[in-house]
Design brief:
The protein is built from 25 helices and 25 strands. It has 714 residues and is an alpha+beta fold. The protein has four domains: 153 residues, Rossmann fold (3-Layer(aba) Sandwich), CATH 3.40.50; 147 residues, no CATH class; 125 residues, no CATH class; 171 residues, no CATH class. The strands form six sheets. The chain has a six-stranded antiparallel β-sheet with strand order 9-17-16-15-13-14. Helix 11 packs antiparallel against helix 12 and helix 22 packs antiparallel against helix 23.
Length: 714
Amino acid sequence: MSTSVPGPAEVSPDLALSSALRWIDRPRDSSAWLWFGGKERAGKTGVLREIAGRHPDSVFLDCAGMPSEEIARKLAASFGVAAPDTYGRNFAEAVTKITTGPVVILANTQWAGNLRTTREPERAVHQVVRTLIRNHRRSVRMRLLIEVEHTADMVASLRGRELTLRGPDENDAQPTDSMNQTEAAAFRALALAESRTVPLTVWSILCSALGHDFSVQQLEELVSSYSPDTLTRTDSEFTWPAAAFRRESTAQAWRGTLPPEEAQRFHLQALSTLRSVDPVSAAVRWYVHRSAAGHAAAAGAFESLLEDAPTMAQVSHHSLFEAFEAAYHDHSVPSASLAAGLYYLAERGVWPSTHGEWLALLHHTLLNRGPSGETLADQLLTAADSSTWPWHTMWAHGAGPGIATTEHLIRRPTARTLRLGQTDSDSLAIATDDQGNSNIWRLGTGEPAADQADAPAVPESFTADQGLHGWRPAGAADGHVDLPRMPRYVRRAVRAGDLAVMSSSDGVFAIRIHSSEPKAAQPEVLKRMLRTDTRVATADFPAEALHANAEWFESVWGPSLLKRVAEDSLPASLADADARRFLTEIGFPYARGFLELETVDLSATGLTAISDSPIGQGTGFRLGTWQGAQLLLDGASGKVLQDGSSGISDPLAGSSLRQFVTMARLYFWWFASDWPIEDTEADLRSWLARIDPDAYAAQCWQRVFEDYNFADRV
């Protein structure tokens, strides 16, 4: 195991090269890692290339401009452990499959990512390098050399050794006081661009967003004046002239000259201006595709970008997910937001191979978000050229992850089998669940159809399952079926012609397949190597749970389960006014087979006082049993208590009857709803703690989340 050592003095490139080569060849059984640092232009990358050239078994990767996902993919492929045909394997598992003792050289991790508002350098170190260090087999003798910006920080966090190259003494990258205000504004606008290379027409737009107007001709003259020492012309790659700083540290220095509040206002204005440019040139489209998401993240306006379907139709999913990680790295993603939809796509491993495939997946995700998402999906379909998509969703029944309301149980259609049926007048999509119940929709529209589960099959239709290697014939162990690539949460399909119906953990949906779209370059299932580094916030507390009316309780339990007691039937010894009102207006649930709660039918038995009440001096009324103990209502205080017969020493189950029943109702909503992957348990826990903090802290309520000893949850 490597240990931290004092940082060495700066050394020359030649000494760094010889030192690194000796370090690599030093006999030892364990793996080790070396952080390579130094100023820009110190020659770090050149030395690392030289090291790679001297070791034929080395893996060299220049990470500049690469997202961390791509870095992980390229490394896994170079080790021969990428396993692209299985969707259970991420980068951490791939690293465990390395059997050789490679020399891994990662250059320019400090410039990872395509955006300037990015977290990719940190992700490259903490999700890629850290995984290489911690997950490789102990029997593998691995050498890691990683170029970073600050070696001391890396040694402090991940240990290892460090080697720092001596850099040039001059520092012409810093802004100069001798530059006039007009030129300084142009430099600042170029530095605030989210792409390191900027078309001159876009540079002019960014200058205007900063409050200074420059024509393309003026910018061309500026480039000529400061080329090649500070600015470079990069028109060889494009059909339009573009410019960039020769060194990225120059851009960083210029970005630091604008206060954060002013920078945020600039990014917001730049995003607004880019959205409204008319007509849109090819250069602007190129920049929006690569950089609009970065401006949105820097402006704190990421959610508003997601709400803009015409712009989203142009934005690259690579830059979108990079900006997403940057926008939410220091705070949680709001629940039920469009950004939360991106979180679940990332968490589910979605990684498209083409822009058209991404838009098809985004459109499908929006359709699963309910009415507001459907509106955005229609706008996206109108704004984009859907002929470039490999497929598009015609209709969907179900709900995507994170889309929940406590107003009713969450139901997602499930399918044990899928088939296409044909009647005299229509084609039908038929989904049959494990209990033999069928949902039937018109294939063309998704409208519910009459019971035609026995309709004959559509001619030439075929069914398929998605396995570890993609689509295969239904029931077969292997083989291939011609269906579009889908994320792993899509499980079954049936196809006829250019139409297919599919089932997933979200529900059932139908797609139209665009046969003109060439097959994707990657035929395997969609998956990611790295998990998202973000987290979704706890869902907002359902306001309707406070002082809820009878309809809210009945919406999940049904009216027959709630048993009301007439006012004149309530005993006078029930002194608590709120409990009396709740029993007459809402009622008490007659529960069986859930939460280990077995209650009495108060509408039939009324409130029965018990003798020898453990409540003390007050009168106790029997409500039933819970977790093996008698459940009682304290007539004086209105509290719901257990009698201790089950061994649970803390008697409090609810500080009031209303609070207890509200907590039970929310638990039932969570327990009985259909969930794919979202962590609704954390939401439920926070809600119960707010409704009745004292009761939630008691052992009885804590126990209901322990699956290992709670009968209804095992």
